[in-house]
Amino acid sequence: MRSGAMRGAERWVDDGDFVFGLELLLDGIEALIRRRALKGDVSGE
Fold first, then answer.
1. Are 22 and 14 contacting, i.e. CB atoms less than 8 angstroms apart?
2. Per its UniProt entry, which superkingdom is the organism in (predicted)?
3. What are the boundaries of each domain within the chain?
């Protein structure tokens, strides 16, 4: 990566975008856990 390639990113990144992405990720993880629980697959295999 070039030096300074990410410089200035803090000006356009919004906290709301981060929260939205985090919530989306957590929703996906929860859905995966529910699906595995319904299948009875708790071994992680």
1. no
2. Bacteria
3. 9-42
Q: Which bin fits 2, alpha (ψ -120 to 50), beta or left (φ > 0)?
A: beta
Q: Would you state the structure tokens that stand for residue 14, as one six-digit string?
A: 């919004």
Report the Cα 23 to chain-centroid distance in Å: 7
Q: Angle CA(17)–CA(15)–CA(20) in degrees, nearest 5? A: 35
Token pair recorded at residue 27: 């929703």
Segment 1-45, tens digit of pLDDT: 456 665 665 666 678 888 899 999 999 999 999 999 998 755 655
Instruction: Report H helices in 1-45.
Output: 15-39
Q: Model-level pTM greater than 0.85?
A: no
